[in-house]
Amino acid sequence: MAGSSDKSLQVELVAADRLVWSGQATMVIARTTEGDVGILPNHAPLLSSIIEGVVDVQTAEGETWIAAVDAGFISVADNRVSILAERAEMSHEIDLEKARQELERAKEAGENDDAAQEAVRRAEARIRAVERAS
Amino acid sequence: MALSVREYRARIKSTESMKKITRAMELIAASRIIKAQQRAQAAAPYARELTRAVSAVATFSNVDHALTTEPENPKKAAVLVVTSDRGLAGAYSSSVIKEAERLVEKLKGEGKDVDLYASGRKAEAYFKFRQRTVVQSWTGFSDQPTYDVAAEIGATLIEAFLAETDEEKTAVDEVHVVYTRFRSMLSQEPTAVRLLPLEVVEGTEPPEEGDLLPLYEFEPSPSEVLDSLLPRYVQSRIFFALLQAAASELAARQKAMKSATDNADELIKKYTRIANQARQAGITQEISEIVGGVNALADANAGSE
After folding, report:
1. pLDDT tens digit string along B76-124?
2. PANTHER family recorded for this chain (chain A) (predicted)?
3. Which of B19, B152, B146 shows the shortest CA–CA distance to B80?
4. Cα dihedral sign for B38, B41, B45, B51?
5. Chain B contact for A18, CB < 8 A?
């Protein structure tokens, strides 16, 4: 792949309606259905489902970006990482107050409801993302 | 022609106010269309990455999936018709509906029953007026569709496709979508595509000589990854169709409103001319009446002297 050396990963974090982040990174951590996975350069090709959670990106410049994502996929090949989720937000885009309120609401909506459970997980992921970033 | 000047003036006035409305709609459509195109572009990376992932799985694993298997003997098809919610967009909605009707005829010719699904109020109204059953319809978002709507439509269609055949209803064996493809500001064409069963043939890039194909690791397993990948792929395809339809709708509306404005201009010009003529005719008549009156008086006076 042009532009990607052996030392870095070309990362694209994509939501259904926009490109959330893209750039060079040295490490990507995401939560798959089996557990957390860290991707370093020259990782073997991988295609995996990820669950609602936090994605951690260490950029080539040494910065750390944190994003909250919905259930989706991570695909790795040729030092190219794409993370696909229906919704994804960078930590600095998240409104913490709103996320907390959503968590409260979702928890009240019921424990047995699948949709509510999903909403709880989503809200928790967003709050975690903000807390990790700060 | 025999109308009075006052009536022509009233007509000019009402045409002018209509022109103001169509002009405003044209401008609104023109400004929205740029946004719609941007949204379509913003959604492209997701669709691209998803397609890449799907074709990776399809190319590098031999897993069959319910969404990709061709039913042996297709008996029933579902057709999703994507139209606008509002009119005043020229032939936009009717040409999609026409294309859908053509597809329905073709499917019926092949001996399949057709289930209709409608997106947009125009399609809903069209089928309702003809008393044809629409299984489900979604309305109220045609000029700015969100991904959530596409996800809902996708979930419904997939559910219909995967449903088991029983006594009450037969399962849908294939799903088609009819929408308007946005080619450019000037041309939008109604298109029909088959959505399910999926045909995933496009490989990422053809491997070069001596280049090893990446051997993907799948977590948790190829079939489970495929299980969650394919529905999303379907939803993203529907989202793409909705976005294209939205851009097309706005382009069609802009074009229709532009010609309506031009037409109003023409009408105003014509009415002004006729009104002026009528006014002039009135003046001429008055003068000839006065002259006639004066002549008659003069004649009468001449006779008495």
Report:
1. 899 999 999 988 888 899 999 999 999 999 999 998 889 999 999 999 9
2. ATP SYNTHASE DELTA/EPSILON CHAIN (PTHR13822), ATP SYNTHASE EPSILON CHAIN, CHLOROPLASTIC (PTHR13822:SF10)
3. B152
4. positive
5. yes
For chain A, give every domain's residue range: 9-90, 95-133
Cβ neighbours of B53 in A, within 8 Å: 47, 73, 75, 82, 84
Three-state DSSP at A108 gives helix
Report domain A9-90's class.
Answer: mainly beta
3-class secondary structure, B13: helix
| ipTM > 0.90, yes or no | no
- B24-203+239-258 CATH, one of 3.40.1380.10, 2.60.120.10, 3.40.50.150, 3.40.50.2020: 3.40.1380.10
CA separation for the pair A116, A114 (Å, rounded)? 5
Q: What's this model's pTM, rounded to 2 decimal places?
A: 0.82
Of residues A34, A47, A82, nearest to B216 (C-beta): A47
What stretches of chain B adopt beta strand conformation (E)? 76-82, 113-119, 134-138, 174-182, 188-196, 217-219
State how far the Cα of A82 lies from the Cα of A107, in Å rounded to an integer.
Answer: 32
CA distances, B134 to each of A93, B12, B123, B146 (Å):
41, 44, 9, 22
